[in-house]
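Listing S7. Sequence submitted for prediction.
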Amino acid sequence: MKRMYYGKKKKRYVPRDLASLKELNIKTALLENIPRDITQLYPEARQIKRQFILHIGDTNTGKTHDALEDFYRADTAVYLAPLRLLALEVQDMSLSRGTNCSLLTGEERDIREGATHISCTVEKMDMAKHFDVCVIDEAQMLSDKDRGWAWTEAILGVNADVIHICMSPNAIYIVKLLISMCQDSYTEIRHRRSSKLIVENNNFVFPDDIQDGDALVAFSRRKVLMLATLLKKKGYTVSVIYGSLPYSVRKAEMARFLSGESRIVVCTDAIGMGVNLPIRRVIFTEVEKFDGLIKRRLNMGEIKQIAGRAGRKGLYDQGYVNAFEGREYIAALVAGKYKQITSCVIQPPRKVLDMPYSLSEIFRIWLKTIDRKCFSVADLKNRIKLAEYIEKKHGEKIGKELEYSLINIPFDENSDQLNILWRSLVDMTADNEPVSRMWYYLDTDLGDINDMKLDDLEQLYKKLDLLNSYCNAMNILEYDEKIRSLKEDVSEHIVSELTNGEFFNKCKRCGKRLEWNHRYGMCEKCYARIKLERSRLKNA
């Protein structure tokens, strides 16, 4: 089979200044350090002939279930999860079946003695270690600008004899293209829904039309909590699931719904990826979401992923979908055909650490250099910002290997508190201070835990996650148990808040209670007052 290359000739130009000359030198070094055949970046995988099994189908068709059967039977195996929630679930299921399975995510590490299997988030794949079987879940994520590089690397580089790839139909073209570049072989398994998915004809009326087995989907934690409060006031028992909940809390909330203790689940799109619950009907409370940059309408992949959770395989003959608004739009996309993904995301390989330039410079020039046939560039803006902080403040006190590890620690970079904590940990590392000093940055938080409200508890949990990730990146094992114990304590307080707390929408100026779906952060009177004040100032 003819090898496929992803490079193309670059035009030469004469730089006019020193900055342009440096950029040209970095571009040249990048092109010299990265082979034109990108598959050669993964030598361990190139030394074996790999067999891929492609599990293709919509949500709730049993793709991952079937792939995991081979995972459990294998002598050695690795599961590459899209979310730590799923990595933890697969470890739990493996241990319950008597399979000794370790766990590795950005935040947690549970490496068990004698373990033959490992369940990890896809970013934590170890390309050097050989496995009999690998399962790569939700492979359509390879086009995601932030994390897609991890799926691309997994397909190109995982060192396993048999590789199961679970994906939605829109990823078929690009996944097959990557496999052909590697000169490996594949077979296809098409998965179909056993339960029919029906978009109801009548508009949903809240809360009159609520039924047992309903999942109400909103796209902000605030709306989820307010909807749950309103339903509890009406006498319904409710489970709450959203992305920033600790795993143990989400697991407890899911268990309540699975056991029938709660009859309704109110959630974000966190249920869309791999969360298997006995949902009879999915109800979209809105058809727009804020994606970190803009508020936009849900796309086909998102709607199919979420709606597909209705009609749990093996429990219901039919699943139903409805919406507070935009039902016709949702119906059209549920019935629509996927547009094929034609490119996947890549990021600079670790090989660039050998280049005599700073990471921030390399990453910035990488964005301008890589323009390839089926590859697009990962969004490196946040990592460039973190690298610049290290380089400007600490210079050569932190080497590039360590800098690379520090900028890849997972945390929410939009949080000022987490940014401050990350910088404090970096400073502590650069100054060779004792690791125990990291507790100093949490002393105030830990002292007030019994009086904390939900927002602060969740923020504290994220800080503990960041400490956990820092210790993992630095291979510090001595605080694993303490951090785990604190996280469990915070989780218990969060459960108490979710169970007993009440959450309402209030005007941010006067505190008046607003409807849960009020579009603005203030009431009409306060808004009118502000408009009047601005008009007076303008005319003054």
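Caption to Listing S7: primary sequence and predicted structure tokens for the chain studied. Confidence is low (pLDDT under 50) at residues 1-10. The first strand starts at residue 51 and ends at 56.
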